[in-house]
Design brief:
By secondary structure, the protein is α+β, with helices and mostly antiparallel strands. The chain has a single domain, classed as CNF1/YfiH-like putative cysteine hydrolases (4-Layer Sandwich), CATH 3.60.140.10. About 20% of the residues lie in helices and about 25% in strands. It has five helices and 15 strands. Strands 4-6-9-8-10-14 form a six-stranded mixed β-sheet. The chain has a four-stranded antiparallel β-sheet with strand order 1-2-15-7, with no helix packed on it. The longest helix is centred in the first third of the chain and has 15 residues. The protein is globular and about 50 Å long.
Length: about 240
């Protein structure tokens, strides 16, 4: 299996992480794939990355700004309806699934807390990043200067053409800086929104990393909904060890 690794997160031996590719096959149960095949894909992935599948926490993602704090009732078979997960529990891998949206991995190496977030256009416009960071500070007493954030492959502005209604919504939210006009068409730069939200929340710029791989340009490597609406999902995973 092939994985994309974060340079920033590779600095910490007490966590495991990965961004999967098409090489790990589809990991989502909601895309009309055979559930048995999806289960087998998870079995293969957990063997490769050496974690217990039943301890993996994933989500029923709904393009919200909801952050769920993992508790003792959570497991592989009981995904929460939310778009971010956070925990300080060891041996409890967190997973975010995407196909053009941004998979975001967070780690505070001092209080040892991890999180994942799913940030597509809706999540970025709703500022799910702020909700995750507020949960770090309010629930786990994090100092944001210790937070490290890796944003995995996602659709870049080169391919993310949107309509005038999205431009107008962005403008109303003060996000027009993320819209580029090319050949009378609007293109949205989600990464610029996420970066500004992280910096506004006082995450150090040196602690922020973007993969800069566009999933649509690289749809042979990553699943891309823009390239194929019937595609599967790849994932970002992080675990405290």
């Amino acid at each position: 299996m092939q994985f994309y690794q974060s340079t920033i997160l590779n600095n910490f031996p007490d966590i495991k992480h990965a961004f999967t590719t098409r090489d790990s096959s589809n990991l989502a149960f909601h895309v009309n794939d055979n559930p048995l095949h999806v289960e087998q894909n998870h079995d293969a992935l957990c063997t490769k990355l050496n974690y217990d599948k039943h301890s993996l926490i994933h989500m029923k993602q709904i393009h919200s700004d909801i952050v769920h704090i993992v508790n003792e009732d959570d497991n592989f078979d009981t995904p929460q309806t939310c778009d971010a997960l956070i925990t300080n529990k060891k041996n409890t891998p967190l997973m975010v699934m995407v196909a053009d949206c941004s998979p975001i991995l967070f780690y505070d190496d001092k209080v040892r807390v991890i999180a994942v977030a799913h940030a597509g256009r809706a999540g970025a416009f709703k500022n799910i990043v702020k909700n995750v960071i507020d949960t770090f500070t309010n629930e786990f007493k994090s100092d944001i200067s210790n937070l490290h954030v890796s944003i995995g492959p996602n659709i870049n502005a080169c391919c993310y053409e949107v309509g005038s209604e999205i431009y107008n919504e962005a403008k109303e939210l003060g996000l027009e800086y993320a819209i580029e006009l090319k050949n009378n068409s609007y293109y949205l730069d989600i990464n610029s929104i996420i970066k500004k939200q992280l910096l506004t929340s006082k995450v150090k710029e040196k602690n922020i990393e973007f993969s800069n791989e566009c999933t649509t340009c690289n749809s042979s490597k990553y699943y891309s909904y823009r390239a194929d609406s019937k595609c599967g999902r790849f994932a970002g995973i992080i675990e405290l060890t």
